[in-house]
Amino acid sequence: MKIYSFETITSIEDVRQIPSYVPLGEQVVLIPPSFPWIKDQMQDIAISLYNFDLGKIPSLIDGLKTKTAEFISRLADAPEGCPATSSVIENLFQTLHSFVNRPLNQIKDKELLSFTERLSGLIIYSYFKHLKVNVSLLDPSLFVCIGSNSKIDTEKSAECLRTLIQDQDATVSILPARICKNGLEETILMPAKLRTLYATHIATLFHAEELTFYTTKQMSSASPDEDVCSQFKDYTITYNEAKSIINAGFNLVPKACLDLAGQHGINLRISNYYNPNKQTITITKTSTMNQIKAVVTRKNADYLQIHSSGNLMPFQFLTKVMAVCGDFKTPIHLISSSSVNISMAVELSSETFHQMENQLSQFASVSVEKDISVIHIIGQFDQEKENVEVKVIDLLKDIPILMISYGSDNNSVSVVVSKDMGEKAQAILMDNFAGQDFMKRNVAPRFREAYSAMSI
After folding, report:
1. pLDDT bracket for residue 169 (50, 70, 90)
2. Tell me: the pLDDT tens digits for 285-317?
3. CB-side neighbour CA atoms (13 Å) of 355
4. Is residue 446 a contact partner of residue 452, using CB atoms and an 8 Å limit?
5. Which residues, at least 6 apart from 391, have a Cβ–Cβ distance to it below 8 Å?
6. Residue 384: in which H helix or E strand, if any?
7. Strand, coil or helix: what is 202?
8. Residue 350: exposure state from Cβ atoms within 10 A (0-12, 13-18, ≥19)
9. Would you say residue 24 lies in a domain?
10. In this structure, are residues 95 and 112 in contact, taking their beta carbons and an 8 Å threshold?
C-alpha cells in the first residue's frame, strides 16, 4: 500500500496531471489537494453565519455549487461533467444546506470548514470516475478518531478503519485531508499546519510502506541550472540524516512526521509536483555509509563568546550561563566550552542580547559577532575512520573558522564562519563533498530563506 498526499493545486491542467503520479495498477490512497476557491467561498459562508446575515447564505452555497459544476465540466472536458458522481455532489450540497440551517449554537466552525476538504476530495473523485478508474471516496470522520489527548488515537482509528474497508475492492481510495471525529463523535478539522502529520498517521493506519508528499515549493537553494537540478533524481537519505538536516534549519518535513514514519518503517518521499523526476528526496532506514548527503547553511545567527571573570567556580560559571540562556529561551545552534569560556552560535534580537548581557556581565565578559554562517556537513560516515572534520579544516584553511563541532553523532560536522565567508565556505564544501562544481561554474549557492539554505 502506498499513500500520496498533494499540496494545494489551483489550475485545471495541474489537477489533470494527478492520475499520472499515481500507479493505477495497485491499491493506493490519495489525499487530494485543497482548492483555494472552495476555501474562500466556505469562509464567506462562515462570515455570513457569524454576522447573522442568514439570507445571504443560500445564494453563496448555490454559487459554490455552480462553480463546482463548471470546474468539473472543464476538468473532464465535457459539458455534462461527470454524471456518475452528480448525485453524490448533490447530496453533499444538500447536507451543507441542512448544516447551515441548524440552530447557530449547534454549528461548529471546524465542521463547517471541513466541507472544503470534502468538496475538494469529491472533485478529484469525480475526475477519476470520469477516467473509468476503480475509485472509492472514503469519509475520514468515520474512522480517524481524536483521543482525549487531542491526538489521533491510532488503536481506535485502526479498528474503525478495518470495519469500514473490509469489503473494499477499489484500486484508488480518495481520502479528504485533515478530517477527524472527536470523542463526542463530532466532525472536526485538524489545523492546516498539521496536514503532513495527518497524512503520516493515515499511512500508519493503512500499514503503508511508502508515503509521498507532492509539494509545489522549491526544494533547494542550489543553482537553478538544469544540470544541477538533475542531481536531485533518486536522492536518498536516512531518518537520522533527515533529522540532522531538520535540526540544521531546513524544513524538510515536521519532526513528528519523521519520528512516526521511522517507528512504523514507512519510507517518506518529498517530490516537487512540477518536476518529480528531477526533484525527489526519499527518506528511508536504509543506510548508505561513507557518503556526504547535504551541506546546509543557516545564516543570520550570532557568535557569542562568554569569558568568566574568575569569581565563580567552573561548574557555577557553566550553570549560570545556561540558566540565563534558559530564562531568555535562547535558540542555541552550536556550543563549545572550557572551564572559563563558552562560545555559542545563537539567534538573538538586539534587545534580547542587551538584556542577557546585563545578567551575564555580573560574572563574565561578553562579546558578539553578528550575522555569522553556521554550516552543517551532513551524511552517514564513521567519525573515527573518515576524519571528516580534518578534511573540513583542510578545505577551509584559508577561511577563519570560529567554531567546529563533531563527534556527537555519525551524521554531521558543523562549522561557524563569518558572514562574508559563508557562501564561499559553502561553495568549497559543496565542490569537494557533494560534487557540485560551484566554484568553477562561478555560481554561489543561494540562501533560500532569511535564516537557512540547503544544497544537496
Report:
1. confident
2. 877 666 777 788 888 889 999 999 998 998 999
3. 11
4. no
5. 432
6. helix 383-386
7. helix
8. exposed
9. yes
10. no
Domain presence at residue 176: yes
The closest alpha carbon to 127, from 45, 250, 33, 52, belongs to 33
Q: Find out whether 386 and 409 touch, Cβ atoms under 8 Å.
A: no
Tally of residues, the chain: 456
pLDDT for residue 233 is more than 80 = no
Residue 328, domain member (yes or no): no
| Number of compact structural domains in the chain | 1
Query: Would residue 93 count as lying in a domain?
Result: yes
Q: How confident is the model at residue 225 (pLDDT cuts 50, 70, 90)?
A: very low
DSSP alpha helix (H) spans, 77-108: 86-100
Domain containing residue 199: CATH number: 3.40.1160.10
SS (H, E, C) 213-279: EEECCCCCCCCCCHHHHCCEEEEEEEHHHHHHHHHCCCCCCCHHHHHHHHHHCCEEEEEECCCCCCE
| Predicted local distance difference test score (pLDDT) of residue 384 | 63
Looking only at the bridges linking them, the beta strands covering 332-337 and 341-346 are: antiparallel
pTM of the predicted model, to two decimals?
0.82
Reduced to 3 states, what is the DSSP secondary structure of residue 19?
A: helix
Quote the domain boundaries for residue 48.
Answer: 2-215
pLDDT at 106: 83
- Between CA 3 and CA 202 the distance in angstroms is 8
Q: Is the pLDDT of residue 231 over 60?
A: no
Four-residue CA torsion sign, 100, 106, 108, 109: positive
